[in-house]
Protein backbone atom coordinates (compact mmCIF):
# COMPACT_ATOMS: atom_id res chain seq x y z
CA UNK A 1 0.00 0.00 0.00
CA UNK A 2 2.89 2.32 0.70
CA UNK A 3 3.97 2.05 -2.95
CA UNK A 4 0.52 3.25 -4.05
CA UNK A 5 0.74 6.23 -1.69
CA UNK A 6 4.10 7.11 -3.24
CA UNK A 7 2.60 6.72 -6.73
CA UNK A 8 -0.22 9.13 -5.88
CA UNK A 9 2.22 11.63 -4.39
CA UNK A 10 4.44 11.43 -7.47
CA UNK A 11 1.40 11.81 -9.74
CA UNK A 12 0.39 15.04 -8.00
CA UNK A 13 3.95 16.31 -8.24
CA UNK A 14 4.26 15.50 -11.95
CA UNK A 15 0.78 16.77 -12.72
CA UNK A 16 1.51 20.12 -11.11
CA UNK A 17 4.09 20.94 -13.78
CA UNK A 18 1.62 20.21 -16.57
CA UNK A 19 -1.28 21.95 -14.81
CA UNK A 20 0.53 25.25 -14.24
CA UNK A 21 1.87 25.40 -17.81
CA UNK A 22 -1.45 24.35 -19.35
CA UNK A 23 -3.39 26.94 -17.32
CA UNK A 24 -1.02 29.60 -18.64
CA UNK A 25 -1.63 28.45 -22.21
CA UNK A 26 -5.36 28.37 -21.50
CA UNK A 27 -5.28 32.08 -20.64
CA UNK A 28 -3.52 32.75 -23.97
CA UNK A 29 -6.04 30.77 -25.95
CA UNK A 30 -9.05 32.26 -24.19
CA UNK A 31 -7.82 35.58 -25.60
CA UNK A 32 -7.49 34.07 -29.09
CA UNK A 33 -3.70 33.57 -29.18
CA UNK A 34 -1.96 30.22 -29.76
CA UNK A 35 1.57 30.02 -28.37
CA UNK A 36 3.49 26.95 -29.49
CA UNK A 37 6.60 28.18 -27.70
CA UNK A 38 5.79 26.65 -24.30
CA UNK A 39 8.62 24.12 -24.49
CA UNK A 40 11.21 26.82 -25.17
CA UNK A 41 9.84 29.16 -22.51
CA UNK A 42 9.84 26.40 -19.91
CA UNK A 43 13.44 25.46 -20.71
CA UNK A 44 14.66 29.06 -20.42
CA UNK A 45 12.70 29.44 -17.20
CA UNK A 46 14.18 26.17 -15.89
CA UNK A 47 17.74 27.40 -16.28
CA UNK A 48 16.84 30.88 -14.99
CA UNK A 49 15.21 29.42 -11.89
CA UNK A 50 17.99 26.92 -11.31
CA UNK A 51 20.70 29.58 -11.66
CA UNK A 52 18.86 31.91 -9.29
CA UNK A 53 18.68 29.22 -6.60
CA UNK A 54 22.33 28.28 -7.11
CA UNK A 55 23.39 31.89 -6.49
CA UNK A 56 20.88 32.87 -3.80
CA UNK A 57 19.86 29.62 -2.14
CA UNK A 58 16.23 30.80 -2.18
CA UNK A 59 13.71 28.63 -4.04
CA UNK A 60 11.10 31.39 -4.23
CA UNK A 61 13.55 33.73 -5.94
CA UNK A 62 14.11 30.89 -8.39
CA UNK A 63 10.38 30.78 -9.11
CA UNK A 64 10.34 34.55 -9.61
CA UNK A 65 13.30 34.31 -11.99
CA UNK A 66 11.55 31.56 -13.94
CA UNK A 67 8.35 33.57 -14.19
CA UNK A 68 10.34 36.59 -15.31
CA UNK A 69 12.10 34.61 -18.04
CA UNK A 70 8.80 33.19 -19.27
CA UNK A 71 7.14 36.62 -19.21
CA UNK A 72 9.98 38.26 -21.18
CA UNK A 73 9.91 35.62 -23.91
CA UNK A 74 6.11 35.78 -24.02
CA UNK A 75 6.27 39.57 -24.36
CA UNK A 76 8.55 39.25 -27.38
CA UNK A 77 6.21 36.66 -28.86
CA UNK A 78 3.20 38.88 -28.14
CA UNK A 79 4.67 41.94 -29.80
CA UNK A 80 5.54 39.92 -32.89
CA UNK A 81 2.15 38.24 -33.34
CA UNK A 82 -0.15 40.96 -32.01
CA UNK A 83 1.43 44.16 -33.28
CA UNK A 84 3.56 42.97 -36.19
CA UNK A 85 0.97 40.34 -37.21
CA UNK A 86 3.45 37.52 -37.73
CA UNK A 87 2.02 34.03 -38.03
CA UNK A 88 1.22 32.71 -34.54
CA UNK A 89 2.12 29.11 -35.30
CA UNK A 90 5.42 29.85 -37.03
CA UNK A 91 6.44 32.39 -34.38
CA UNK A 92 5.61 29.97 -31.58
CA UNK A 93 7.67 27.21 -33.17
CA UNK A 94 10.56 29.65 -33.61
CA UNK A 95 10.29 30.61 -29.93
CA UNK A 96 10.35 26.95 -28.92
CA UNK A 97 13.46 26.25 -31.02
CA UNK A 98 15.14 29.39 -29.71
CA UNK A 99 14.42 28.41 -26.11
CA UNK A 100 15.87 24.93 -26.59
CA UNK A 101 19.12 26.29 -28.02
CA UNK A 102 19.47 29.32 -25.75
CA UNK A 103 18.85 27.35 -22.55
CA UNK A 104 21.43 24.75 -23.60
CA UNK A 105 23.99 27.49 -24.26
CA UNK A 106 23.36 29.41 -21.03
CA UNK A 107 23.17 26.23 -18.97
CA UNK A 108 26.59 24.84 -19.92
CA UNK A 109 28.17 26.16 -16.73
CA UNK A 110 25.40 24.84 -14.49
CA UNK A 111 25.36 21.17 -15.50
CA UNK A 112 27.44 20.09 -12.51
CA UNK A 113 26.03 22.60 -10.03
CA UNK A 114 24.03 21.35 -7.07
CA UNK A 115 21.24 23.05 -5.18
CA UNK A 116 21.19 23.42 -1.37
CA UNK A 117 19.45 20.69 0.60
CA UNK A 118 15.82 20.48 -0.48
CA UNK A 119 13.25 21.43 2.17
CA UNK A 120 10.58 18.91 3.16
CA UNK A 121 6.98 20.05 3.52
CA UNK A 122 4.12 18.49 5.42
CA UNK A 123 0.67 19.67 6.47
CA UNK A 124 0.58 19.43 10.28
CA UNK A 125 -1.44 16.49 11.65
CA UNK A 126 -2.85 15.57 8.22
CA UNK A 127 0.55 14.36 7.05
CA UNK A 128 0.55 11.79 9.86
CA UNK A 129 -2.59 10.01 8.62
CA UNK A 130 -1.58 6.52 7.42
CA UNK A 131 -1.37 6.18 3.63
CA UNK A 132 -3.43 9.33 2.94
CA UNK A 133 -0.91 11.61 4.64
CA UNK A 134 2.14 10.61 2.58
CA UNK A 135 0.05 10.60 -0.61
CA UNK A 136 -1.67 13.96 -0.26
CA UNK A 137 -0.23 16.07 2.52
CA UNK A 138 3.53 16.01 2.07
CA UNK A 139 3.63 18.05 -1.12
CA UNK A 140 5.36 21.28 -2.04
CA UNK A 141 3.11 24.35 -1.53
CA UNK A 142 2.95 24.91 -5.29
CA UNK A 143 1.08 21.60 -5.66
CA UNK A 144 -1.73 23.09 -3.61
CA UNK A 145 -1.15 26.43 -5.33
CA UNK A 146 -1.96 24.83 -8.68
CA UNK A 147 -5.29 23.63 -7.28
CA UNK A 148 -6.04 27.10 -5.92
CA UNK A 149 -5.06 28.60 -9.27
CA UNK A 150 -7.72 26.49 -10.99
CA UNK A 151 -10.41 27.83 -8.65
CA UNK A 152 -9.17 31.39 -9.09
CA UNK A 153 -9.11 31.04 -12.87
CA UNK A 154 -12.66 29.62 -12.94
CA UNK A 155 -13.87 32.64 -10.97
CA UNK A 156 -11.84 35.04 -13.10
CA UNK A 157 -13.01 33.71 -16.46
CA UNK A 158 -16.67 33.15 -15.64
CA UNK A 159 -17.52 35.56 -12.82
CA UNK A 160 -15.32 38.65 -13.08
CA UNK A 161 -15.85 41.48 -15.56
CA UNK A 162 -12.21 41.39 -16.67
CA UNK A 163 -12.42 37.68 -17.38
CA UNK A 164 -15.60 38.08 -19.37
CA UNK A 165 -13.94 40.80 -21.44
CA UNK A 166 -10.96 38.49 -22.02
CA UNK A 167 -13.27 35.75 -23.28
CA UNK A 168 -15.10 38.26 -25.48
CA UNK A 169 -11.79 39.21 -27.08
CA UNK A 170 -11.15 35.54 -27.79
CA UNK A 171 -14.60 35.01 -29.28
CA UNK A 172 -15.00 38.20 -31.34
CA UNK A 173 -12.18 40.74 -31.19
CA UNK A 174 -13.91 42.97 -33.75
CA UNK A 175 -16.99 43.26 -31.53
CA UNK A 176 -14.87 43.90 -28.45
CA UNK A 177 -12.96 46.58 -30.35
CA UNK A 178 -16.21 48.20 -31.48
CA UNK A 179 -17.26 48.44 -27.84
CA UNK A 180 -14.06 50.32 -27.05
CA UNK A 181 -11.94 47.59 -25.50
CA UNK A 182 -8.17 47.67 -26.27
CA UNK A 183 -8.04 44.24 -27.90
CA UNK A 184 -4.31 44.21 -28.58
CA UNK A 185 -3.34 45.23 -25.07
CA UNK A 186 -5.72 42.66 -23.57
CA UNK A 187 -4.24 39.95 -25.76
CA UNK A 188 -0.71 40.99 -24.83
CA UNK A 189 -1.57 40.94 -21.12
CA UNK A 190 -2.99 37.43 -21.52
CA UNK A 191 0.11 36.26 -23.39
CA UNK A 192 2.46 37.68 -20.74
CA UNK A 193 0.43 36.12 -17.92
CA UNK A 194 0.47 32.79 -19.74
CA UNK A 195 4.21 33.05 -20.30
CA UNK A 196 4.79 33.76 -16.60
CA UNK A 197 2.87 30.61 -15.64
CA UNK A 198 4.82 28.55 -18.18
CA UNK A 199 7.95 30.04 -16.63
CA UNK A 200 6.79 29.03 -13.15
CA UNK A 201 6.25 25.48 -14.40
CA UNK A 202 9.73 25.42 -15.93
CA UNK A 203 11.35 26.67 -12.73
CA UNK A 204 9.39 24.10 -10.71
CA UNK A 205 10.94 21.35 -12.83
CA UNK A 206 14.55 22.37 -12.22
CA UNK A 207 14.14 23.52 -8.61
CA UNK A 208 11.67 21.00 -7.11
CA UNK A 209 10.61 18.23 -9.50
CA UNK A 210 14.14 17.19 -10.51
CA UNK A 211 16.47 19.61 -8.67
CA UNK A 212 19.25 19.80 -11.22
CA UNK A 213 19.96 21.24 -14.65
CA UNK A 214 20.27 19.02 -17.72
CA UNK A 215 19.93 20.17 -21.30
CA UNK A 216 16.42 19.53 -22.62
CA UNK A 217 15.13 18.46 -19.21
CA UNK A 218 11.58 19.67 -19.90
CA UNK A 219 11.42 16.67 -22.25
CA UNK A 220 8.22 17.47 -24.12
CA UNK A 221 6.15 18.62 -21.15
CA UNK A 222 5.49 21.92 -22.91
CA UNK A 223 3.92 20.09 -25.84
CA UNK A 224 1.85 17.91 -23.53
CA UNK A 225 0.62 21.04 -21.72
CA UNK A 226 -0.37 22.50 -25.07
CA UNK A 227 -2.31 19.35 -25.91
CA UNK A 228 -3.98 19.49 -22.50
CA UNK A 229 -5.83 22.70 -23.36
CA UNK A 230 -7.57 20.90 -26.24
CA UNK A 231 -8.08 17.76 -24.16
CA UNK A 232 -9.77 19.91 -21.50
CA UNK A 233 -11.89 21.78 -24.08
CA UNK A 234 -10.50 25.03 -22.69
CA UNK A 235 -11.91 24.55 -19.17
CA UNK A 236 -9.64 25.01 -16.12
CA UNK A 237 -11.03 22.16 -13.98
CA UNK A 238 -10.59 19.69 -16.82
CA UNK A 239 -7.03 20.96 -17.31
CA UNK A 240 -6.23 19.96 -13.73
CA UNK A 241 -7.87 16.57 -14.17
CA UNK A 242 -6.00 15.97 -17.44
CA UNK A 243 -2.71 17.07 -15.88
CA UNK A 244 -3.04 14.48 -13.12
CA UNK A 245 -4.03 11.87 -15.67
CA UNK A 246 -0.90 12.48 -17.74
CA UNK A 247 1.18 12.85 -14.59
CA UNK A 248 -0.05 9.43 -13.48
CA UNK A 249 0.86 7.90 -16.82
CA UNK A 250 4.34 9.43 -16.52
CA UNK A 251 4.87 8.04 -13.02
CA UNK A 252 3.38 4.66 -13.89
CA UNK A 253 6.57 3.69 -15.71
CA UNK A 254 8.60 3.97 -12.49
CA UNK A 255 5.93 2.18 -10.45
CA UNK A 256 5.83 -0.75 -12.87
CA UNK A 257 9.59 -1.01 -12.89
CA UNK A 258 9.59 -0.89 -9.08
CA UNK A 259 7.18 -3.82 -8.73
CA UNK A 260 9.14 -5.86 -11.25
CA UNK A 261 6.84 -5.75 -14.28
CA UNK A 262 8.89 -6.85 -17.27
CA UNK A 263 8.10 -4.18 -19.84
CA UNK A 264 10.75 -2.57 -22.09
CA UNK A 265 11.87 0.70 -20.51
CA UNK A 266 11.66 2.46 -23.87
CA UNK A 267 7.95 1.65 -24.11
CA UNK A 268 7.32 2.87 -20.57
CA UNK A 269 9.16 6.12 -21.28
CA UNK A 270 7.02 6.67 -24.37
CA UNK A 271 3.75 6.10 -22.47
CA UNK A 272 2.94 9.81 -21.77
CA UNK A 273 3.45 10.75 -25.43
CA UNK A 274 1.48 7.74 -26.68
CA UNK A 275 -1.34 8.74 -24.33
CA UNK A 276 -1.23 12.30 -25.67
CA UNK A 277 -1.52 11.14 -29.28
CA UNK A 278 -4.34 8.71 -28.46
CA UNK A 279 -6.34 11.34 -26.58
CA UNK A 280 -5.94 13.94 -29.33
CA UNK A 281 -6.90 11.38 -31.96
CA UNK A 282 -10.06 10.48 -30.05
CA UNK A 283 -11.00 14.12 -29.53
CA UNK A 284 -10.39 14.92 -33.21
CA UNK A 285 -13.04 12.38 -34.20
CA UNK A 286 -15.68 14.91 -33.10
CA UNK A 287 -14.70 18.25 -34.70
CA UNK A 288 -18.09 19.77 -33.91
CA UNK A 289 -17.49 19.28 -30.19
CA UNK A 290 -14.11 21.04 -30.45
CA UNK A 291 -15.56 23.86 -32.55
CA UNK A 292 -18.33 24.52 -30.01
CA UNK A 293 -15.88 24.82 -27.09
CA UNK A 294 -12.92 26.45 -28.85
CA UNK A 295 -12.59 30.26 -28.74
CA UNK A 296 -13.88 31.44 -32.12
CA UNK A 297 -10.90 33.68 -32.95
CA UNK A 298 -8.22 31.23 -31.77
CA UNK A 299 -5.09 31.64 -33.89
CA UNK A 300 -6.61 34.41 -36.01
CA UNK A 301 -4.87 37.80 -36.27
CA UNK A 302 -6.76 40.99 -35.49
CA UNK A 303 -6.36 44.22 -37.46
CA UNK A 304 -8.00 47.17 -35.64
CA UNK A 305 -8.33 49.15 -38.86
CA UNK A 306 -10.23 46.42 -40.73
Give a verbal description of the structure.
One of its GO terms (cellular component) is plasma membrane. It comes from Limnohabitans planktonicus II-D5. It is a multi-pass membrane protein. This is ABC transporter permease. The protein has helices spanning 2-30, 38-56, 59-83, 88-106, 132-136, 141-158, 161-171, 173-178, 183-209, 221-231, 236-258, 265-284, 287-293. It has 306 residues and is an all-alpha fold. The protein has one domain: Orthogonal Bundle (ABC transporter involved in vitamin B12 uptake, BtuC), CATH 1.10.3470. Helix 1 runs antiparallel to helix 9 (183-209) and helix 2 (38-56) packs antiparallel against helix 3. The model has no long low-confidence stretch (mean pLDDT 89).
Summed up, what is this model?
The chain crosses the membrane at residues 6-26, 33-54, 60-84, 91-111, 141-158, 188-207, 213-232, 239-257, 263-283. The protein is an all-alpha fold.
Amino acid sequence: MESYALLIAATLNAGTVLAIAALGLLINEKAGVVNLGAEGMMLCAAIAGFAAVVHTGNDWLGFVAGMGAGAVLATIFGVLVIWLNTNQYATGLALSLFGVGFSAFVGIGYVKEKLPDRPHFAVPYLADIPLVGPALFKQHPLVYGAMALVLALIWFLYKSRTGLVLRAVGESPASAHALGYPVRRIRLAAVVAGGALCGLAGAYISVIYTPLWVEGMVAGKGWIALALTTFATWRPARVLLGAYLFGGVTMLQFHLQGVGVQVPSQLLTALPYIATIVVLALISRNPTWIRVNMPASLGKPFYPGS
